[in-house]
Amino acid sequence: MKRIITILLTFLFLTACESTLTKNKKENNRKPNSFAIVIHGGAGGIKKEYFTKEQQDAYTQKLQEALNAGYKALENGGISLDAVEAAINVLENSPLFNAGKGAVYNSEGKQEMDASIMDGKTLNSGAVAGVNHIKNPILAARVVMDSTEHVMLSGRGAEILAKKYGIEMVDSTYFYTQKRLDQLHKIQNKESRTSLLINKELIDDHKYGTVGAVAIDKNGNIAAGTSTGGMTNKKYGRIGDSPIIGAGTYANNKTCGISATGTGEYFIRTVAAHEVSNLIQYKNMNPKNALHEVLFNQIGKLGGEGGMILLDKNGNVYWDFNSTGMFRGYKKSDGEQKIEMFKETE
Ligand code: ASP
């Protein structure tokens, strides 16, 4: 009897060791020197029928350009922070997206932009909020991270710092686009006809278009960044989730990097990006389920809408959204790449 018990215990012990080994193997399966980048150009009312073939091509082309810029930085041995910056720069310089040149207008007819960046290795982070003279707010976020002891600077202070560090400054008229102005007027006209400030119709009209990127470099370090003009017709001084570390942006080498887009208030209230990372780290959830849990069971239940991109510590790409679509794409060192706009079923 004693022998049987000993054999049984030995068997149980060996099985436990085996399962721990398999788990660890699963947890560290990144190929040495591999790298990857994933980007988004915002989520929202993105349905095939709303876009002409030319428009679809223009978005695809710009997303490809951004992916290539980030990929090139990684390929040349650059760190993930540089890749995130490079990809976001391309999108900020395009009027197609709600960041930099294509930023939306607030209720006073001005642009107030937010951006943030985070290093998953050190958890260092930088952010700027409510700026309107910095051509590429993501560069200023990086300066806040690298050159100050702070995480976030707003408005005038952020602009003084950016200028001091040689970041390109522009007159606020640089950010003018007729398309965004028309969107503001459309929403404001609707608002004057309705007593409800945020009703479903208005939410549908908001073009999210925020941009974001997450990269993992050859050393396995993850970085994430997000840049936005916020939401059309937002109140003066309103700050969304994009510059808030843990809400719109998060990176941690232990789990993943994330950039979000959508109705920012809900992403702030659920601390969305950090929540996803926590579910992976502490609940052992896989990234797919963690994204779904936060986007659908938390944000969606509160009435929020949007999406997130995620790159895990093994270089696997995930994304999800509870809106009709999301501009998105990735490029990996194993040659795999993809660009999508609509729901996969469309
Ligand atoms: N999340 C952004 C904000 O609320 C908007 C967006 O994603 O387009 O400021």
Describe the structure.
The chain is α+β, with helices and mostly antiparallel strands and about 350 residues long. It has a single domain (about 35-340), classed as (Glycosyl)asparaginase (Glutamine Phosphoribosylpyrophosphate, subunit 1, domain 1). The chain has helices spanning about 1-25, 55-75, 80-90, 135-145, 155-165, 180-190, 200-205, 265-270, 270-285, 285-300, and strands at about 35-45, 115-120, 125-130, 150-155, 210-215, 220-230, 250, 255-260, 305-310, 315-320, 325-330, 335-340. Strands 4-3-2-6-5-1-11-12 form an eight-stranded mixed sheet. The chain has a four-stranded antiparallel sheet with strand order 7-8-9-10. Helix 3 runs antiparallel to helix 4, helix 4 (about 135-145) packs across helix 5 and helix 9 (about 270-285) packs across helix 10 (about 285-300). The structure holds aspartic acid (ASP). Aspartic acid binds near residues 231 and 242.
Give the structure's gist in a few sentences.
The chain is an alpha+beta fold and 346 residues long. It has a single domain, classed as (Glycosyl)asparaginase (Glutamine Phosphoribosylpyrophosphate, subunit 1, domain 1, 4-Layer Sandwich).
For the largest beta sheet, what order do the strands appear in spatially? 4-3-2-6-5-1-11-12
Any low-confidence stretches, pLDDT <50, length ≥5? 17-26, 195-206
User: Based on the structure given, which CATH architecture is correct?
Assistant: 4-Layer Sandwich
Instruction: Give me the count of strands.
Output: 12
The fourth-level CATH homologous superfamily is (Glycosyl)asparaginase
The radius of gyration is 21 Å
What integer is the average pLDDT?
91
Q: What percentage of the residues does DSSP assign to strands (E)?
A: 15-25%
